Known about the structure:
By secondary structure, this protein is of the alpha/beta class. It has 15 helices and 16 strands. The protein has three domains: 2-82, Arc Repressor Mutant, subunit A, CATH 1.10.10; 103-109 and 356-458, Alpha-Beta Complex (Aspartate Aminotransferase, domain 1); 116-351, 3-Layer(aba) Sandwich (Aspartate Aminotransferase, domain 2). The protein is 41% helix and 14% strand. The chain has an eight-stranded mixed beta sheet with strand order 5-12-11-10-9-6-7-8, with helices on both faces. It is globular and about 80 Å long. GO terms for molecular function: DNA binding; DNA-binding transcription factor activity; pyridoxal phosphate binding; transaminase activity.
Amino acid sequence: MVDNWTTLRELLLPTGPRRGRAVESALRDAIRDGRLVPGTRLPSSRDLAGQLEVARGTVTSAYAQLVAEGYLLARHGSGTTVAPVGSGDATPAPPSGRQSWRIDLRTGVPALSAFPRAEWVSATRAALAELPDEALDYPDPAGFAGLRTELASYLGRVRAVAATADQIVITNGAAEVLRLMFEQLRMTGHRTIAIEDPCLPGERELVEAHGLKPVSISVDDRGLRVSDLAKTDCRAVLTTSAHQFPLGVVLHPDRRHALLAWARDVDGVIIEDDYDAEHRYDRPALGAMQALAPSRVVYQGSVSKVLSPALRLGWAVVPDRFRATLVARKRFSDMGTATIPQATLAWLLRSGGYDRHLRRTRALYRRRRDALLAALAEDLPDWRPIGIAAGLHLVIRLPDGIDDRLLSQALAARGVNAPALAGYATNGLFPGLVVGYATLTPDRLRTAVAEFREAVREI
């Protein structure tokens, strides 16, 4: 164990005395100036004493003093770790940049507790057992061939996507597909791209960060208004046609055909974000647009809403004219996506584990959605939920006269995260809340509705 901590000798006391309070002072200084960050696990007193060539009691005393001062945390069976400086609080801080909510109704996250840990571990072992040694080299930037083969079969069977393994590129989440495509569009002369209004949070900023100007196109109960798109000079559009985010509407068949005709007329590109398409409860499956015009549509998806966003596994079905350039740029940017998680996902797809997990979670999410709908119907019958037939979230249309931003702020003050619909749109829409239900139990969702009722009274 000592060998694992040899850097602490150089970090704490590279020279000078290693006796008395020198160890205590060196540890305190390293924590104060950030060389030992909160959460760092320290070696045992025996190990550190061996490194520093001091008596074990010297280290034990130093640890005890720094625990008393709040610089260190000591838990039986967990060792000694660095605490927030001077806090004396053993409660870990929430991840950087993410607020801790009493009730978090944010969207875009599946039930993380439902992740199939045992199946994933088993699939990883099975995949590793059959991987040849050469597969552990730097990955193919287009993606692991076994996963591309399984995805071509799965997407054809489940989403009616027309693709071969050679047309699929594996990425680090769906966000990398967008980055690669935005760069491709800019390099080929595009200066604008049409996006839906309302749209995914951060979508406009992502477009702008890659050198394009976002042009907002309104969405109504039939989906993207293609007639408005045709009035712009855009030759590219990003759409969530199967389950529009956040309104949950499906792009009407007439508008699908109009959108494909627009792409042919302007020599345009459609980026089809298949957001939440696999989670449906009250409507039949609707095939992807990609099969209707494979040369015009870039189809993208990921496992983030089915398994976990922590996996960072996404994919794109790319028209032949884009593929070589995208793969080359992916090679230069990140040397490819990690092979072992790809091989694990390929095993889950081939063995049926992915389908089984999806069936289990569909039933789970339907129960949670139904509990939320029942609570709204009972406690707030004038609030109308929309976009309920699929996905992991819904929009609650509020009665006229309620300011959704003020209501969202009042809920935030009560520790409830329920974003206002106004924050997703540039054009005026009806007042609403965008509510994710996948991560909360039915009891917690009923509590959330009770919080809605109390918060609206306050405003």
